[in-house]
Structure formats: C-alpha cells, structure tokens
Amino acid sequence: MISVVVPVYNEERSVALLYEELQAALDPLSTPWEAVFVDDGSTDGSFAALTRLHTRHDNVRVVRLRRNFGKSAALGAGFDHADGDLIVTIDGDLQDDPAEIPHLLAKLDEGFDLVSGWKAKRRDPLARRAFSRVFNGAVGLVSGVHLHDMNCGLKAYRATVVRGLPLYGELHRFLPVLAHQRGYRIAELPVNHRPRAHGRSRYGPERYLRGFFDLLTVSFIGRYRHRPLHLFGGLGLLTMIGGAACLVYLTLLKAEGHAIGNRPLLILGVLLVVVGIQLLSLGLIGEMITSLHEERADERTRAQAVVDDVLTHS
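Request: output the structure for the sequence above.
Response:
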C-alpha cells in the first residue's frame, strides 16, 4: 500500500483539489493507496473540509492535532497513522505536483530508500530562492549530504526509513540527513513546482536562521552520538593545554623573581584548566551513557541482510 501524508495548516480551499489530483495520479497504479491528512491546528475551515473528504472517500484518514505544533510534529503524526509500505509526503498548498509521485515511486524501485524531490524550476520569489540555495549549500557542506533541495515537501520513503526517526522542532528539513546517518540510500529527482494558487506562504527568512541551529543539532547527533568523548574530550584537551601553557609561562616568570599574583593571565590559566577538566569529564559521562544504551540495544537490528547457507551432507 502507498500512504500519502499531507500536513495541512489553513488550506481549506486546497485539500479537495489536492485529493482529486492524488486520485488522478495514483488510481492508475496497481497498488492500493490512502491519503493521511494531518490538520496542524488550522484556524480556518480546513478540518471541516477534511471531514467531508473522509465522508466521501474510504481511503482518506484525518488526524487533527490539538494546536499548531509545526510541520515536524504533523509529519510524525502522519507517519504514525500511515499503514503503507511506501510513504509519500506532499504539502497541502498545491505547489507540489501529485503527478510526480509515480516517478518518485519508480525511483524507489531502483533500490533507493528515500527519493527527494528537487524543484528545479522553483515558482517562488527571488529572495526565497536565494536563501534556499545558501541553506542547501551549507547543509551539504556540514552534513555531507548534497541535495539541491533538502526541504522539498515532495518525497517518497520506504516505511522502514521513517519508523523511529526523531521528528521534533523543525527537523523535518533534515529527513534526508537523518536517513543518511542511519545508512539508507538516498536519491534526488527533479519535480514540477507550481505557483501558489491559494493562501499565503508562512515561511520567512527567519526559518533559515532556525534551520542552521537545527543543522548543528543534526550534525552533532549524527557524528558524536556514539562517541561524545571525541568532541568534548578534544575541546577539553585543547583548553587544558592552553591553560597549562599560561601557567608554565607564569611559573618561569615567578622563578625569575617577577610577581604574578596580580596578573590576569593567572586567572585565565586556572580557568582554562578547570574548564578543560569539566569538558573532559562531560565527555566521559557521555561515553558511559552511550555504553549503557548500546548494551541494551539489539545489535542484530543493524544488519541489512544475512546470507546463511546451510550445507547438509548425506
């Protein structure tokens, strides 16, 4: 089954049109499909429109969040209620073209686990396109996952990819990075992008600033989750070396008869040594927590495939 997860926020005029386009794109396929609409605390008539869709169509599910929690929470709720082996995400504003979904699914069949859309001819204002290009370049530089359009809402996944992915805050922008960190194969495919027909965009330049902070979070979790001492221990060691150098220098001055008690360098040297010890201790505590977690984890879940030939002799 194919599950199409649609986060909705104040898209009353779009949801019925979107379902019709999904129907036109997916009905010709031989696979059954469902649409999971997640109302992320809309303040217009979106929920009523979704309820009418559910009444008319058996393959429509509607999930309503108590308030506007953001796109990450909406996608997470949609993933939790989706029954399909293949999951497609698409925004509810009609800018993404549902006719592209079969192409994404065909790309999955080539052996990929996640296929991200790329709005090659993006129908957005120039400023937004410029911010997006800078953001995508920074994400590729920091994470090592080089996609033209990291935040495209049109993506196709195998269900195993999204099960258990941490989705909070605004980490939905980095789903390809999170999947890559877990060893899944990722591809990108150019898709059609259309001008906004209804409503207005709720994204501004400030979301890219928040995105950079989220990028630091994702990069830290991906690189140092299982080896925190490499980060905190390295920083602590460098800090301790700097503090020790200051103290050695002051010791030499003291040996030559100079007074060092009123020198700011003395306070700096002691502070650097203390902070370095604290960072090193933090890294060791992190290693202990990681070790405890790994002992409880089932190591067999990391295997992608097992080939076990049993030979019998007569």
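Confidence is low (pLDDT under 50) at residues 310-314.
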